[in-house]
Structure formats: C-alpha cells, structure tokens
Amino acid sequence: MSGLILVSHNQHQLSTLASIYDRILTRRGGLWISWDGKKAPPNSEITRDLAFRHGNDYDTLSFPLTCSELEEGYRGYIHQGLWPVFHQRPDLAHFTPQSMHSFRQLNEEYARAIAEYAMPDDAIWIQDYHFIPVAKMLRDAGLTQRIGLFFHQPFPSGQMFEAIPDWRWLVESLLCCDVLGFQTAQDMNNFLLWVESEFRAERMGKTLFRIHGRLISTGVFPVGIDLDDVLALQESNSCQFMEQQCRERLPENTLLSGGHLDDSAGLPYRISAIEVLLRQHNHYAGNVMLLQLASSASGHAHRQQEISHDLENICGEVNGVHGMLNWYPVSYLNHHYSREELAGVYRASRVALVTPLMAGMSLMAKMYAALQDPANPGVLILSQFAGAAEHMDGALIVNPYDPDAIADAIHTALKLPLRERQNRHARLMKNIHLYDCHWWADRFISHLMNEEGESNTQVNQSIVLGARFSGRARY
C-alpha cells in the first residue's frame, strides 16, 4: 500500500506542533521520521542505528544526532545563519564553513533514513527549512517519489535569500521538490517572483511553474491547530488548577505575552507598551499586569542569556517607575510550564499579545483563541507581520514596532463590551474551525499526491494515499 512519510526535527518535543503532527498521522497513518532527542556517541557517524517502531496508528523512525550536527549544524547554521535571513535580519546571520559542513551531515543523515525506509509509492512531506538539502540528496540517491516541502517560517525576498553564502546549492534542492508550501501569500509571491527572474522559470499557471524539466506546484497552506487537542487540554486537571490559581492571584486585567527568546519576538516593544499604557491611563495602576512567559528552554541558545538579561532590565525599569508595594505591572517568568498548565494561563488571561516582529505560523494566537470561554472570551492582539494575521479575522491587528499602537490596542481590548468580545471570538473561531490542522494536511497532501490533476514529467505513476499501512519493507 502507498503511504505518507512525514519528516520533522523532533517528534519527542512537547509542543503544539508535535501534537499537530501526531494528530494528523493518527488519522492518516504513515511514517514519522525525526531526531530522537539524543546525542550520538563520538565516532558513531558510520554505525548510527535507526530505531524503527511500529505503532497502532502510525510508525516512527528516529535516530540520534552527533554533537557537531546539533551544535554546528542545527544551532549554528540553522539558528545563527538561516533563521535571521528568513526573518529579514541578514545583519544578524553568522555562517561558517564548519557549520555548513555539519548542516550537510545533518541532512545526509535524514536523507539516509528516508532512503532506507521509503517504499516506491510513498510521498515524502518535509517540514521546514531545516531540511531544504534533503530533496536533492534523495534525488541523487535515485528516489523518484513525490517530495513536498512546507515552510513554517516566513520566506524572504530573493535578494534576501541570496545573502546566504553558497545559496545556490539550497535552491537546487528546492527545485527538486514537486510541491512547495508557504504560510502566507506574501511568502509564496516572494519565492515565485524570485525564481521567475533569477532562473527564468516557465510559469504554467498561477502557482505552477516548470524549471529544469520539472513541474513544481506552490500553494498557501496556513497551519491550523487540532480542536480535539484543545478540548483535551481544557479538560485536564493541570489546566483547570492553573486557571483557578491565576484567577485568584492575578489581576482581572491580566495581559498574556509569550514567545521565544529570539530577536523576532518583539518582547521589548510589548513591555514598553505597558509603560505607555500606564502613563496615558493612570487608572490601570494596580489592576493590570503583563504576564511575560519566556521559558529558558525556548528560543535560540546563543542569544538566550543576552535577550533574557535585556528583558529583565526593561521589566525592572517599568516596575521601578510604576510599581507599588503590593503590585507591579510586569511579571517576567522564565519557568517551564507544561502545555496543560499553559492552557490554564491562556484561559485566565483577559488579553493576549502575540506581536512578533516577523513570524510564520503564530500558533500561540490560535491556541489562545480556541482556549477561551465563548461566554466571556478574552481579546487577541496580533502583529500585522505574523503569518496568522492574513486569516485571523476578529483580532486587533497592530504594528509590533510601535509601543504606542500596542498600548492603544490594549486599552481598546480592555474596554470592549462583552458582546463585541463575543463577536470577535466567534469570527476567530470560524476560521480556526475551517482551517484546522487536518485541513492543512488534506490540502497539502492532495497537492503532493497529485490529486489536483497536474502531471509531472519526473513521475511515471500516480500516488494515492491509503488510509493506513501496516508495515514497511526496505528495498
């Protein structure tokens, strides 16, 4: 039987995205290939074992990565190099020959695992820019299966992409894919305009082009969440206990601020907005609090300490000027909370500030809205540069670089009457229901399986996804 291979960074990480992959594969079946979260022992590059496990709903294949692949390839080339470029900050990018070498090794290990376990009629769905080189490596190994790559991150303009040293080898791999998926129309257009001008691609349709004899389909597939997962979080004891604790101990006007400790989160602007809010509306003194959650496990290791130190200084300044003996306006917590505990904090927060300077999915925005009580919902304030902003009707959209605009949005959110909050929440939930994670998977996979009727000169047979496949054979 034919099937689906999903390739991601780490299936063992307790995150919303990992939960989404699990829900998709539980419904569809398939093979999930990822890092196992462990470090391989020294000198194990040649003899590394692949751990295959057959599950009731889907199978998994995992393996360790070497210290070099993790430190230089993942935290170096990806976090310190590709990430700034994809988030329009090439001035922060740092590439080295060693990090590129380790990045290649990391992708070679993934390509080896895929090639060893892929069956001839499997379709391969690669998640994010971590694994751009895998597509060409698989083609070089002789695999002709349909390959799709989805970008969870924003896709930069062509000129920005060319800031990457030796960028052409990455593009060569992108052009080995059959489907390229993007979070927003702007991301897709950045890619299409670039390949048309740089590579003289032949446009075959609005989102279809031919280059090097291959038809490549592109599309906008915003990532959604799983509402069954949301319900399970709501019903958990940890969620209910945390919600009760927050409602008893925090001010009624609690503003939730999350995000990774990285340069695109825009956290200093949010804290500055609190200072503006209190300066312009002194009646909030004593009854509003920004709850800034930023776990030390989130973000990029090479910048965490510096960014955390800067945040502590900014929080200290605001609290020193506006705080009282029994109240301070900003609470900065870097404790790690479980997903269930975070769900309780989300439910108890009157407003959520999701205002990254640049972001792809912004799953936090969707989780916050879905976790609200429809009878008395909170208000979502969302950055105009978040990927979710294109389809989150009902949110208050702001410029994340403008503390005054954020402060105005907070003031507006706190004084919205119940009926207006309910109306905005209903509009948010309409899109969250329509475009959930299963819609995302169905749309992308229908393109990947060539169910749209497009032919591909590189593929001699159509691929149809089965509901399940019970086992795998090597070839």
Automatic annotation (TrEMBL):
It comes from the Bacteria. One of its GO terms (biological process) is trehalose biosynthetic process. GO terms for molecular function: alpha,alpha-trehalose-phosphate synthase (UDP-forming) activity. It holds the Pfam family Glyco_transf_20. Belongs to the glycosyltransferase 20 family. PANTHER family: BCDNA.GH08860, TREHALOSE-6-PHOSPHATE SYNTHASE. This is Trehalose-6-phosphate synthase. It comes from Pantoea rwandensis. The lineage of its organism: Bacteria, Pseudomonadati, Pseudomonadota, Gammaproteobacteria, Enterobacterales.
